[in-house]
Specification:
Shape: globular
Helix content: 40-55%
Strand content: 5-15%
Number of strands: 12
Number of helices: 16
Structural class: alpha/beta
Order of helices and strands: EHHHEHEHEHEHEHEEHHHEEHEHHEHH
CATH topology of the largest domain: Aspartate Aminotransferase, domain 2
Strand order of the largest sheet: 2-8-7-6-5-3-4
Largest sheet: 7 strands, mixed
């Protein structure tokens, strides 16, 4: 049996998305910027896709949806837009959280040499960025607050509406990286009151290499790619029309099926969580309820997560140790470190991320395999033997 449980890294393209991609590639190959009939056909399709996506994310279609190459580009452009806003109004502080995706953290780090003060606030032990933590550090010198909507490693959902309101009271912009949220939980840019939002098609059964940056009307996105005047002069380069058409199809399906998918995937997640937590000295990272349906992160004391992943892979089960963007790194997860975990615990973690395509039989198999593999690894672990004999104190109280 081959089981894919790494949907937070990327998802399988839906049939409708794949059909839209192939149909557009075959029948609508003109450049949307060209004035001839083929170009106008492509331009009309681009307009239609923008309208569909804009409606689904609660945007004013023409002004507020910019198509990008994916979440990392969207995050970077949002951060640079916030920085330009700061320069314009003499604001030099940018606030984010310490467990953001590296696309945000590294973009912020690049601004330090330009005189910006970067403040990273820690989430609480349950993986939630509390509004009170933002209140303590925000002031009228703050240009931008950027807090992700759902964490990519542990899946916890942040109180975005309240955080955005706090930012706006200090005349700061608010951006949310919603890459792990869009298509999985309800979202409306208008209702949440965000100024900018990032999303990526391949996280909701669309193609890789295409994404969205929502920018509220009246705010001008800063250019990070120079060339032509595409995307209302906000993002140069010929639009990836097949990818955009497929992204629109995938997002439409995801939103239409969202209620039933939330119920189904949450049920699978909860069953698997209960099974895995029967393993001694094991914890589920993050709040049990305030999380997206499919993402789970478990810490198994006394073993190495990478070894567990290899054993699971040998049994046909694909999972991960955290963000796909840091795969292969031996550094402890910055997400888990932000929650106060020691290096020993962070190295014993794995992320399992499910989708509506997973089955109950697969959940049973994953649970069985994880229990057997953890047991085998602990039999070989000197650290685990020391914990069992009392030489080493356990760091998990359960």
């Amino acid at each position: 049996m081959s089981i894919y449980a790494d949907n937070a890294a990327t998802t399988k393209m839906s049939r409708n998305a794949l059909d839209a991609y192939m149909k557009t590639s075959d029948n609508c190959y003109g450049n949307p910027s060209s004035v001839h009939s083929h170009g106008q056909k492509a331009s009309n399709l681009l307009f239609s896709a923008r309208k569909v996506i804009g409606t689904l994310i609660g945007a004013n279609v023409q002004e507020e949806v910019i198509f990008t190459s994916g979440g990392s580009e969207s995050d970077t452009q949002a951060i640079m837009t916030g920085a330009e806003y700061g320069k314009k109004y003499g604001k030099t502080k940018i606030i984010s959280s310490s467990f953001e995706h590296h696309a945000v953290i590294n973009a912020l780090n690049s601004l330090k040499n330009e005189g910006f003060e970067i403040v990273l606030i820690d989430p609480d032990k349950d993986g939630i960025v509390q509004p009170e933590s933002l209140e303590k550090v925000i002031d009228d010198n703050t240009a931008l607050v950027s807090i992700m909507m759902a964490n990519n490693e542990i899946g916890t959902i942040q109180p975005i509406r309240t955080l955005a309101e706090t930012a706006h009271r200090h005349n700061a912009l608010f951006h949310t990286d919603a890459v792990q949220a869009i298509g999985h939980i309800p979202f409306s840019a208008k209702e949440y009151g965000v100024d900018m939002m990032s999303a990526s098609a391949h996280k909701f059964n669309g193609p890789r290499g295409v994404g969205i940056l929502y920018v509220k009307a009246g705010l001008r996105a800063s250019k990070i790619i120079y060339g032509g005047h595409q995307e209302n002069d906000s993002r140069a380069g010929t639009e990836n029309l097949p990818g955009i058409a497929a992204m629109a199809a995938a997002l439409k399906d995801s939103v239409l099926d969202m209620k039933q998918n939330i119920e189904y995937v949450s049920s699978l997640r909860d069953k698997l969580t209960e099974e895995i937590l029967t393993i001694p000295n094991t914890i589920l990272v993050g709040d049990r309820k305030r999380r997206v349906p499919g993402i789970m992160n478990f810490v198994f004391e006394g073993i190495e997560g990478e070894a567990l992943l290899l054993m699971l892979d040998s049994r046909g089960i694909s999972a991960s140790s955290g963000s796909a963007c840091t795969a292969g790194s031996l550094d402890p997860s910055h997400v888990l470190k932000s929650l106060g975990m020691t290096d020993n615990l962070t190295h014993g973690s794995i992320r399992i991320s499910l989708s509506h395509e997973n089955t109950e039989d697969e959940i049973i198999e994953i649970g069985k395999a994880v229990k057997e593999c953890v047991s085998k690894l602990r039999d070989m672990s000197e650290t685990w033997q020391e914990i069992q004999s009392g030489i080493r104190k356990s760091e998990i109280d359960n």
